Amino acid sequence: MNNYTLIIMTDDKQVVLERILQVTRYRGFLIDGITASVNNTNNIATIELLVSSDRPITLLIDQINKLVDIKSVKVDNNATQLSNA
Amino acid sequence: MTDSKPLTGGGLLFNVVEQHGVNHVFGYPGGAIMPIYDALYDSNVQHFLCRHEQGAAFSAVGYARASGKIGVCMATSGPGATNLITGLADALADSIPLIAITGQVPTAAMGSDAFQETDIFGLSLACTKHSFQVNHVDELEKVLHQAFEIALEGRQGPVLVDIPKDVQMAAVEQNFKSAAPLKNKVKLPLADISKALDLLTNAKQPILYVGGGVGMANAIEEVRAFARETGIPSVSTLKGLGALDATDENYLGMLGMHGTRAANLAVHDCDLLIAVGARFDDRVTGKLDQFAPDAKVIHFDIDTAEINKRREADAPILGDLKENLPLLTMSLNITEWQANIQKMKADCAWRYDHPGDSIFAPAVLKEVSDLMPKNTCVTTDVGQHQMWAAQHMVFDEPSNFLTSGSMGTMGFGLPAAIGAQISRPHDTVITVSGDGSIMMNIQELATIKRYQIPVKVLLIDNAKLGMVRQWQDLFFEGRLSETDLADNPDFCMLARSFDIKAKQITQKSEVTDAINEMLDHDGPYFLQVKIDAKDNVWPLVPPNSANNEMMESA
Ligand SMILES: Cc1ncc(C[n+]2csc(CCOP(=O)(O)OP(=O)(O)O)c2C)c(N)n1
Ligand SMILES: [Mg+2]
Fold first, then answer.
1. I want to staple B290 with a disulfide (CB 3.0 to 4.6 A). Which of B419, B445, B538, B546 is the partner?
2. Which range of residues forms the domain containing residue B276?
């Protein structure tokens, strides 16, 4: 199992979190933690998602990126290294 | 529409539908969608009342696949909406542009377990490309335009719009006008053309592997030019059938579980695999780590997520096939490989000799294919008859062969044929069905009757769930659990009760006349072809085997 931290920027839509969780589970990643916050001036939400899986993280990044309301998805390398250590 | 009646959310829906060039919708009314059906009464859009919401969804899928337009289906809340789900899942899996409109209970009642309330928005997450719930009429116009754009943009797919009853009834404030186009995320193409050119010029045994993406990208000309000019031997997936020129001497037909022996052996031996709008589906690859084991891969796709999903690409080429394929179109010197391929093709040619008087389905389908008019659209259901149609019929375009590929949904064929016929009223439409599958949406014979839709039903009747029976015989020690359908209804009598002309044949000697009678008949026609229940689909790549380990007989 590898651990990853994803930083996801999205439009602030009620259903976005549900979509991300559904895709994450379906594509074979376990959710180890989640924090989410909204910037009220630009209505962009930032979601930090801690996941683990044997599958390559690019698989999940590509699938989350396909969701319509997603602005960007990045692996937080610092956080990932920490949790691996 | 009369001036005295203000535009409502429901009326706005049909204005937007028309604005996107769609004049036909498929649906079924009910309480929570009544304001939309009331607006339909004044609309120019023609509605087809199907007899089950799944029929409406598959008719919309057939309409879209046969015409390249968007298919639109509508259902009421609760059970109406849930009945659409199989069609949505099918459209998602086969990347079909579809809009599903569902009525919802009024906003004030939502979340209260109201009568016929179901969380279709929540249910849609796993079976649509995107979905919307419209909580205020002011959002409706923008959402509807977005729905059409999302369905068509990039890799196509189904979009659901759930509209509460009060939003359907609410007066639309501003006058109807087109909304600003949606700004899509701009993604840079990940094209590795120079690497691909390098692989291509150094390959000695390349194969072109073509999928459903080619038809959907409107890149049939480009892929044929590529095949012609490079001379690269080619194979097709189930959904790619029709994209390549089937008369090309280097075309080997379908690959995969029920592919031709030549296609599977050639792919197994190739040193370069050029995947075009195809995604290495498990029914194509067989045992994945033994699929084209010595090949480098060039992968053309529109969907980033397909690159490296099941097979690492040495040169991924992301983006529009129409633009990217010409960049690699050049002449190559692979005559030795072509000679091998053509010999393999000749050695593995289909044979239609079959002992006895009982009808041989592959020969029937080949004959229908030879006799049917140009531009005939064929739909299928799922099972042995589907694989025989894919193997033995020839199509000029993917939009002439509609089959449920990824989902393999029994019940697809009849309603898809209805939708196809409505979108192409001047072309012949045939559905090749099975005696199990036809019963899954048999109620759509009533839709055929009501609108006098001249669909031809070719029923391959083995009185079995034949494909499952074949697997039970081959892989489950002949333990025939729940696959016998000897008590099927009298299909001809059933068809006649919907005023559809029907005929049953049982002997080889009757085949040619029956096919001609069916094709010459002006209206709908039902031809029941009784075949031997023991006939199997060959070749077959057994589960967990490599594609070069095909079985040719039991
Ligand atoms: C909705 C659905 N349920 C079950 C299946 C599993 N299945 C695949 S083929 C098949 C048998 C189909 O029988 P029939 O339509 O008579 O076709 P045949 O194989 O006999 O030609 C079944 C049950 C399916 N594909 N779709
Ligand atoms: Mg059958």
1. B546
2. 193-347
